[in-house]
Amino acid sequence: MSGARGKAAIRRASFGKADGRDVTLFTLTNENGLVLKAMTYGAIVTELHVPDAAGRASDIVLGFDDLASYLAKSPYFGATAGRLGNRIRDGKFALAGRHYALATNDGPHHLHGGNRGFDKDVWDAETFETADGPSIRFSYVSKDGEEGYPGTLTAHSTYTLTN
């Protein structure tokens, strides 16, 4: 990577399969040569290359080079956590007088959306150019009852690599 100025670009490449679904890796490059890589599995940011004081670009994101490592290790590197980005004690809560029991995946507690939080699902994605730079919008529908949560929720996560 040179960090050289140029035309903004969006590239896509196959990154493997998860749960029988194709996983796509997107590479966004802005006019200043900054590079962001994100994939449809977990709406995970896998790389972000930025220049140091001398202009040499380096990846500043913790992550893996292949999908298999994300599937096997799942340390939440660069992931979109959900439905909740934290813990729920004992995996239980009440809402509007109704009690809910969630999947427990951190001892007796619920962590980052449960056994199959948003970080472990394949999201839909669309790319587009904006006046600010290249952009990708990930979308995921969490169905009523998923990991014990009530109600259907549509989540969106948009990354724009501004110029």
Low-confidence region ranges: none
Overall geometric form:
elongated
Terminal CA distance reads 17 Å
What is the count of β-strands? Answer: 12
Strand content: 35-45%
Strand order of the largest sheet: 1-2-3-4-5
Query: In CATH, what is the class?
Result: Mainly Beta
Q: Brief overview, please?
A:
The chain has 163 residues and is mainly β.
General description of the model:
The protein has one helix and twelve strands. With 163 residues, it is mostly beta strands. The protein has a single domain, classed as Beta-galactosidase, Chain A, domain 5 (Distorted Sandwich). A five-stranded antiparallel sheet has the order 1-2-3-4-5, with helices on one face. Strand 4 and strand 5 form a beta hairpin. The radius of gyration is 18 Å and the shape is elongated. The chain starts with 8 loop residues before the first strand and ends with a strand.
